[in-house]
TrEMBL record:
<feature type="region of interest" description="Disordered">
    <location>
        <begin position="1"/>
        <end position="39"/>
    </location>
</feature>
<feature type="compositionally biased region" description="Basic residues">
    <location>
        <begin position="23"/>
        <end position="33"/>
    </location>
</feature>
<protein>
    <submittedName>
        <fullName>Peptidase</fullName>
    </submittedName>
</protein>
<dbReference type="InterPro" id="IPR010428">
    <property type="entry name" value="Zincin_1"/>
</dbReference>
<dbReference type="InterPro" id="IPR038555">
    <property type="entry name" value="Zincin_1_sf"/>
</dbReference>
<dbReference type="Pfam" id="PF06262">
    <property type="entry name" value="Zincin_1"/>
</dbReference>
Length: 167
């Protein structure tokens, strides 16, 4: 006897038996599923805050790489959200602000690492417009520490403690 068309002999169902939370009839009832995102992936606003911050660090490293070449290639640049707890405790004990980044010395088989902390930089910058210059200055200061040079020698465009106001 043939099997009716509405039944399947396949033991694996085409859809899961239990729907995921939040994907119920409510949204589908008015035809609101299937919409795309508001922004296409190639637009800069598509990136997360973390990705945009990582791009700023990468841009600063690329600017320095043009000047220093293989010395910058020997350094790994990384981004962390906040410093580790030990760094925060030491800064608090000295009555200092949290560190904006750190240089981690490499061994024979490990590259030297520069770690830039996103949240402290965003807090110190105060505005979104000031974040790019502060990121670059922090990267320059950390590279200068790694090289044992003053920041002005690492990048002649180093501004120090204040953004360029155009005055």
């Amino acid at each position: 006897m043939p099997v009716p068309a509405r039944f399947s002999l396949d033991p694996t169902p085409a859809r899961p038996a239990v729907a995921r939370a939040g994907s119920g009839r409510r949204r589908e009832r008015r035809g609101r599923t299937g919409r795309g995102s508001l922004l296409p992936p190639m637009v800069p606003a598509w990136a997360t805050r973390q990705e945009r911050f990582e791009d700023l660090v990468a841009d600063s490293a690329a600017r320095l790489q043009e000047r220093w070449g293989s010395r910058i290639d020997a350094i790994s640049f990384d981004v962390a959200l906040v410093p580790d707890e030990g760094s925060l405790v030491r800064a608090a004990a000295r009555d200092e602000a949290p560190p904006l980044g750190s240089v981690l010395r490499g061994g024979r088989k490990q590259r030297q690492r520069i770690l830039v902390f996103r949240r402290p930089i965003e807090t110190v910058a105060g505005s979104a417009a000031a974040v790019p210059w502060l990121v670059h200055d922090v990267v320059v200061e950390l590279v200068a520490e790694a090289f044992g040079l003053p920041p002005e020698d690492v990048d002649p465009g180093y501004r120090g403690s204040a953004p360029d106001d155009g005055h």
